[in-house]
Amino acid sequence: MKRLIAVLGLACLTLLTACNTVQGAGKDIEKGGEKIQGAAEDAKK
């Protein structure tokens, strides 16, 4: 039983870490997209 709890705990930590990583990557991609969009709008002028 202790082993099962330890494995589930590690799985939860791994999932939480992965979510933070994906969220951070999403924010970076969003910022990059905003810069590209701004550059495209500047090129239209």
Structural notes for this entry:
Helix content is 96%, strand content 0%. By secondary structure, it is mainly α. The termini are far apart. The mean pLDDT is 83.
- First CA to last CA: what distance? 67 Å
Shape: rod-shaped
- Please, what is the average pLDDT? 83
DSSP helical segment count? 1
Order of helices and strands: H
> Mind summarizing the main beta sheet?
none
**What gyration radius follows from the Cα positions, in whole Å?**
20 Å
Oligomer: single chain
Number of strands: 0
Task: State the main characteristics.
45 residues; rod-shaped
Which helices and strands occur, and which strands form pairs?
Blueprint: H1 2-44
Condensed summary:
This protein has 45 residues and is mainly α.
